[in-house]
Design goal:
There is one protein chain. The protein is of the alpha+beta class. It has one domain (about 5-135): Alpha-Beta Plaits (2-Layer Sandwich). The chain contains 2 helices and 5 strands. Strand 2 and strand 3 form a beta hairpin. Helix 1 (about 5-15) crosses helix 2 (about 75-100). The longest helix is centred in the middle third of the chain and has 22 residues, at about 75-100. The chain is elongated and about 55 Å long. The relative contact order is 0.20.
């Protein structure tokens, strides 16, 4: 299993155990629109990794971990998404630091779509996890 897979698994585990986020249906990934009847949903992805050589055989890797929550809402939708973002950060950073992985939040984006019959909101929380690996794949 890859380190990125470990990161996604840990994130899913701690988010599922959270009192605020645990009731959300977790999807591994999605493309396009999510049917309203499936909402609220949560997804965890690792869409990018930067590599910086520290020597000819040792590399620092910075993996971007993103947690996305989509939900239906009314006038309080933005407040719900704020709470989601806070809960995500409170879960992710301590869990990764407890495993010895340097993890910092990079950003939080909230988007509201009220064009259709129902208001749908999305929160995207991004984190960077820094770790080290040798050329032959051993974690350093």
């Amino acid at each position: 299993m890859s380190r990125r897979s470990d990161f996604r698994a840990l994130a899913r585990q701690v988010l599922a155990a959270d009192a605020h986020l645990g009731s959300l249906k977790q999807l591994s990934a999605w493309a396009g629109n999510i049917p309203a009847e499936l909402l609220p949903v949560l997804g965890v992805v690792t869409p990018q990794e930067r590599v910086r050589p520290e020597s000819l055989e040792h590399f620092q890797r910075s993996t971007v971990l993103q947690v996305v929550v989509k939900r239906l809402g009314a006038d309080d939708l933005e407040d719900l998404l704020d709470d989601d973002g806070d809960a995500i950060e409170a879960c992710i950073c301590p869990a990764f630091l407890a495993r010895g992985w340097h993890c910092v939040p990079d950003g939080l984006t909230i988007a509201l779509n009220g064009d259709g019959e129902q208001r749908i909101g999305t929160v995207l929380a991004s984190f960077t996890i820094t770790w080290h690996r040798t050329l032959d794949g051993r974690v350093a």
